[in-house]
Amino acid sequence: MQLTVPAAAYAAGSQELEFFTQLNVFRALHGLGLVAQSVALDKANQNHLAYMLTNSDVNYSDVDPKTGVPYAHEEDPARPGYTGVAPIDRARFAGYAVTWTGEEVSYGLGRGGANAFASLLGTVYHRQGLMFQAPHDFGISAGNDKYQTTTLSFGIADKRQRNASDYFGAYPADKQTGVPLSMVAEVPTPFADVVGNDFAIKTSYPIDVASEESTTLKVESFTMTEAGQTVALDARLLTADNDPSKLLGKNTAYLVGKAPFKANTTYNVSFKGTVNGVAVTKTWSFATGQ
Fold first, then answer.
1. Mean per-residue pLDDT, 102-122
2. What CATH number does the domain containing 105 carry?
3. Which long-range contacts (CB under 8 A, 24 or more apart) does 224-227 make?
4. Residue 183 and residue 140 share a domain
5. From the CB of residue 94, how many other CB atoms can be counted at a distance below 10 Å?
6. Average pLDDT over all residues of the chain
7. Are residues 252 and 140 in the same domain?
8. Residue 159 has pLDDT above 90, yes or no
9. Domain at 210, CATH number
């Protein structure tokens, strides 16, 4: 596992440096290997960002009905700025010796890299991408458009990371404070009955557990309860077995309440299940912010 990486060469005060720094702080705190800056992946993201900004008539919040892929993650060869249909094609075009790559798109919305990172962390599918255990490399490009469009990707070339076989992580972490109240909208949506503005009123902030990436996690019970109460919150459990988009790995499970958390409130979480047939239990608590 990669515990140290060379200092990034992103400009001081840049959105890219802010995002990269927060990402590696987050990964370290949760027992995941750090990722190293890749100049080639940076270039791939610069190219893709230029494509998105040039082709601003495309609805990047929608999904291509022909491929099932969000428009934000594919390029049309007939459009200007094209460097590859899929993220792996664009990585190769930029000179990255890729065997695997994963791409995400976020928006700073005038608040820079910190907000772009927090927005991804507040989702299900995109948070999973931030927590993938194997990637060794990372690239990013942030725009100066009014949305501060940010494209980023993780990559594996000749090296991959591996967590210990008994790794078991959870987020939000035990005793974490300032946890947001609701989930951030994402495409595709993990829930058929929650789209767009519904996320702010029909979801809590997502809670997740994850085991080592090659293992299989099975849930027996997964609950969250407001401190001082005995009845668990009404919540949706999402795993690889019931994920409508088939994007979740078999080593993770997400719990999302059907209403926002209360502000400045402590919640207790309890998980019971198995990892490759071996019993695992975990209890922890966190507190929300405003």
1. 97
2. 3.40.33.10
3. 224/255, 224/257, 224/267, 224/268, 224/269, 224/270, 225/267, 225/268, 225/269, 225/270, 226/262, 226/265, 226/266, 226/267, 226/268, 227/265, 227/266, 227/267, 227/268, 227/285
4. no
5. 23
6. 96
7. no
8. no
9. 2.60.40.3780
Handedness of CA 11, 16, 22, 23 (dihedral sign): negative
Please report, as a single letter, which amino acid is at residue 29: L
Assess contact for 280 and 274: CB atoms under 8 A: yes
207 phi, psi to nearest 5 deg? -110, 135
DSSP 73: G
pLDDT > 90? residue 70: yes
At 87, the amino acid letter reads P
Distance CA 22, CA 52 (A): 24
The percentage of residues in the chain with a pLDDT greater than 70, rounded to a whole number, is 100
Distances (CA, A) of 81 to 46, 47, 61, 208: 11, 7, 19, 38
